[in-house]
Amino acid sequence: MSISVTHNYTDQPEPEFSAEKLLEVQRFISMYPEGKQKSALMRILHLAEEEFGGWLSVPTMNYVARLLNIQPIEVYEVATFYTMFNIEKPGKVVLEVCRTGPCMLVGSDQIIEYIENKLDIKVGQTSADGMFTLKTAECLGACGYGPMLQCGKHYHEHLTPAKVDELLDTLRKEHSEK
Q1: Strands (E), 88-160
Q2: Global model pTM greater than 0.90
Q3: Which ranges constitute the DSSP H helices of the chain?
């Protein structure tokens, strides 16, 4: 039986980390006992996303597997399990709305629906202009500030439709210039 990750990007060449990033990879691996290099996987996947355009293609995941001397399926399992990793090329801006119990109690479902309607997309999709990708996240660790979303390293809390409109306008201006 074979298991594969399928999408349209398998024809890309296998990437390679820069020399600087390879040193960082080796540092991560050295943090764990011999034979336990797989423990560095999540850190290296974050590094790979940062280095290779904000997402993990199949060639990138294969490269990471080779670096760690593990099977590619072991990398695919982790990359597809955690919502923090993008296995499809995202829009310029990734909006991750928390949908855990506390955020749901204060309206995260309504915020998700509002964003879906506003951008004419569903969760997991990217807007037609390639600007926004909408995702949901399991607990962003800010239960007292819901409903909330994460955009990059920034949290946006106590969301309302008006705050979402303001945020989308600001993000569109910031990222249109890039």
Answers
A1: 93-98, 132-137, 149-151, 154-156
A2: no
A3: 19-30, 41-51, 58-68, 72-81, 101-105, 108-119, 161-176
